[in-house]
């Protein structure tokens, strides 16, 4: 991926935040980010980029130089190096924008990102500053119950008790500081993720209306 080399030295964003609206979507594993993102896409026309999905696709791409590195991190529930994740996100954004009839405008939900502070800083420096973070807050016991249930059918290598425990630890140690960083800038919209999905979506819509206006 040629974007990787280019990314390291870049200190100005490639997209303007007047043209591109980015919301980061965070929450522990099993908090329901994917479910809410699906609904947000249907209602507001966001493009949905899941960092985890992009990494899994890259892992499975024949001849990817990053395949085994990604697989190892996913299995251990650890963070894939930021250059790989950011390059995948940037190239997806470019291809979505270039196929858009109004190419300068785009609305993106970036799900499962940034999971570590260095990713947040680099993405905002070199790609585009985000508007805010949608943070789905859920107790660990409930997330564990949901993941074990999903594991019966998901086929995901990391929906097992051992990987789940590691993912929780990574979330608390590495991703919560990202939430705190944005919170200190009043850029976090926190949503209680315990209720059923429809209720969580109602709360999400109400918060978006407050932050982005009714006609977003
Ligand atoms: P998810 O599909 O969001 O649950 O992510 C599954 C796994 O992909 C995580 O446990 C990490 O190993 C990896 N991953 C997902 N998002 C990121 C990210 N933003 N940065 C680095 N690694 C990630």
Give an overview of the whole structure.
The chain is an alpha/beta fold and 216 residues long. It has a single domain (22-207), classed as Rossmann fold. Helix content is 56%, strand content 13%. The chain has a five-stranded parallel sheet with strand order 2-3-1-4-5, with helices on both faces. The chain is globular.
Q: Count of helical segments?
A: 9
CATH topology assignment: Rossmann fold
**Main beta sheet: strand number and arrangement?**
5 strands, parallel
Radius of gyration: 17 Å
Give, in order, the helices and strands: HEHEHHHEHEHHEH
Shape: globular
Low-confidence stretches: none
Number of strands: 5
Count of individual domains: 1
CATH superfamily, please?
Answer: P-loop containing nucleotide triphosphate hydrolases
Span between N and C termini?
A: 34 Å
**SSE class:** alpha/beta
**Strand proportion:** 5-15%
Return the average pLDDT rounded to an integer. 94
Strand line-up in the sheet with most strands: 2-3-1-4-5
The first-level CATH class is given as Alpha Beta
List the helices and strands and how they pair.
Elements: H1 3-9, E1 20-27, H2 33-44, E2 47-50, H3 51-60, H4 67-76, H5 82-98, E3 106-111, H6 117-126, E4 132-137, H7 140-154, H8 161-183, E5 188-192, H9 197-212
Parallel strand pairs: 1-3, 1-4, 2-3, 4-5
Helix pairs in contact: 1-5, 2-9, 3-4, 3-5, 5-6
The structure holds adenosine monophosphate.
Residues 29, 51-52, 55, 73-74, 77-80, 85, 112-115, 119, 158, 167 line the site of adenosine monophosphate.
